[in-house]
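Regression check, TNX case 526:
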Amino acid sequence: MRVLRRTLGTLLVLGAAVSCTAAHGDDAKPGGRRPAALAPYDRLLPAPASARAEGAGYAFGAGTVIRTGAGSGEEVRQVGELLAEQLRGSSGLPLPVVDGQEGDGIRLLLDEGAQELGAEGYRLRTTASGVTLTARTPAGLFRGGQTLRQLVPVRGTGDVPGGTVTDAPRFAYRGAMVDVARHFFPVEQVKRYVDQLAQYKINTLHVHLTDDQGWRIAIDSWPRLAEYGGAGEVGGGPGGHWTKEEYRDLVEYAARRYVDVVPEIDMPGHTNAAQASYAELNCDGKARERYTGVKVGFSSLCVGSERTYEFVDQVLGEIAELTPGKYLHIGGDEAHATPADDYADFMDRAQAVVARHGKTVVAWHQLAQGRPAPGAVIQYWGHDRGPAAEKAAVVAAAKAGHPLILSPADRAYLDMKYDTTTKPGLTWAGYVPVERSYSWDPGNHLAGAPESAVLGVEAPLWTETISERGDWELMAFPRVLGLAELGWSPAGALDWTSYRERLAAQGPRLDAQEINYHRAPDVPWS
Ligand code: TNX
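Current build output:
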């Protein structure tokens, strides 16, 4: 990847310089200048590693077909079908998917020898005869297809301008998290989010499936978890849970979009819903009441009881069985009701269970103050004013070889209010306007942690104050697009002045998709 970055760097101006066509007109409007319309290759979001407009364009219209190479296999065909479906939605064109590369149109070409493109990179070349997408993997073709969607008109048909994009991600892990425990949401809503995210090249969906207020996934060996522990939520609503069928369907839906689902079972704290479902999970043998408030840190599994570890093993076993991806998130945050020694002992055993089920542990950064197992991934959710000791432990873990996922709460937390006027949301990490959520570099954010330890970024959406889709989207959009760019684009492309104009250019696309986004005053929406 580094080699590619260097190669691409010499090939062309990186994103920051790409917006050279953006004249900064002075026709002022509140909150910013109105940007002149950006040319298509200048407004891509996330900014690609390199993009150059040149030569004649391709007329995307009634005659356009999508060509998947004969013999390139079923998966490429599926990528072609999905791209066709997406482009039909905006253009109304028929866009048949056909075999064979000969002829005009949109061509999907698998080139396994294109090492420089890596696991998700692609090249997109537009000439008068069509658009050719080349990648080493089907995932790369899918990512390139999402770029193409930004080069065609938001609605209808028109020219794709001539040019070349050569692109690959800076970080392997580009995630978003949803908390379906504080408020329950059906799988359909999560699928909608997957579509919204995948178009900006996010490749991981972390689902926070359990917490004090609800257990949202069916577990065959412990059925009351979902049946009883899932039947409630913050504020006293009915809650709900996903069946295994629904969960598998979500995993497959996401996989078709090259989005990996990472399930989280939060332990040993945040477990009241489980402790309400089964008396035997409590040290005093008494089932807890279900909880509909928003406090944290009051619950704990019974660390000294062997029954607890049977529970952990059976639950994680069933979750591992539902998970094709390699990561399993075991929480580990805010276990204030678990003494520190017990916490470390519990996490040792929970991590061993994950390994036994063939998965790699992800945990919130409190694990760094316990004993992270070799290879365990640490998810940092601290903030600028957070305790130095916590940061030091995370930095030490990074230096010892633990990969980091960065979700700094005062930048990446989508449940923080934008400003004083935001209705939903919390403020414990401060207000997070769009500029603040974008303006940091994951490569050097945590002083002392080497960039090589950074696996990527993730934007969590906690739902204590969010119970419907409109608020979910309002909090996520547009900030999650900035996180997508921080995860994908080269460091040299990260620039607020350029970004805000490219973000503004996404407005009509978000409108067309009926996404309820925050019209942030720091962005010059047209
Ligand atoms: C902290 S982030 C939590 C969550 C809350 C969130 C609200 C983390 C690992 N723990 O339990 O929902 O703050 O912003």
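Comparison notes: Residues 74-91 form the longest helix (18 residues). DSSP finds 16 helices and 19 strands in the chain. No diff flagged against the previous build.
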